[in-house]
Design brief:
globular; 9-stranded mixed beta sheet; alpha/beta; Purple Acid Phosphatase, chain A, domain 2; 7-stranded mixed beta sheet
């Protein structure tokens, strides 16, 4: 796993991981958003050929993050799951049993539509709209569930376009920190991105992709 990028923010130590997560050191809390577990299985049921390894890779990345940071709590800022239960969620249940010591809290997103009993049996605490911890608040969609304090959100899958020489450009997932709220990148690789246009007093951290065959590994860089 590549080292996370240290970011001192509002008196708290955050670690921005190239694996699309934030570790909040003081609270020993690993924060992720938009995992969309079960999405690849949902697409395959509809006849769209998505490799099963996409989901397994996402699950393995999450396990690696938990093993690396050793958090007390995994806080999911919405869309832990994508749709109804399928075989991929059965695999998640097995994953969960192996990490029974880990507290998991889910701030419900628009895709989190499983029955309450399913979450209970999986030992996931579900928060309907927002969760407050210290000076921070956590909501899935900042536009529909504003909360007091500085908010961390997800939902839009932020991306930033970086232009090179000539007409070259690339769009990368990113962490966005504005005056009143932050937006996490989608944890899942099987999602799109919404391009953002940050203002002068806003901070953006782009996530560089990993290409081990070229000797290149994921990294987080501040571009604004």
């Amino acid at each position: 796993m590549q080292p996370a990028h240290p970011y001192r923010f509002k008196g708290q130590q955050l670690w921005l991981s190239p694996d699309r997560s934030i570790f909040w050191e003081e609270e020993k809390c690993l924060i992720v958003s938009d995992l969309h577990f079960g999405k690849t299985g949902h697409f395959r049921k509809s006849g769209i050929g998505v490799p099963a390894m996409v989901y397994r890779d996402d699950l393995q990345r999450l396990l690696s993050l938990v093993q690396y940071f050793q958090p007390r709590e995994l806080l999911v800022v919405g869309d832990l799951f994508h749709s109804r239960e399928n075989k991929e969620l059965t695999l998640f249940r097995k994953w969960r049993k192996d990490l029974a010591h880990l507290s998991i809290r889910l701030v419900k997103g628009n895709h989190d539509i499983l029955d309450e009993e399913w979450y209970r049996q999986s030992e996931i605490e579900v928060v309907p709209e927002k969760w407050e911890m210290g000076d921070f608040a956590f909501v899935h969609d900042i536009t529909t569930a504003p909360a007091p304090g500085y908010c961390f959100s997800g939902h839009i899958h932020p991306g930033i376009r970086i232009n090179g020489l000539g007409r070259q450009s690339v769009r990368l997932p990113c962490f966005y920190f504005g005056a009143d709220y932050a937006v996490l990148p989608a944890f899942s690789h099987f999602t799109g991105m919404a391009s953002i246009d940050p203002g002068p007093r806003e901070s953006v951290f782009a996530i560089l992709p990993s290409a081990p065959h070229k000797g290149e590994y994921g990294n987080v860089i501040q571009i604004q």
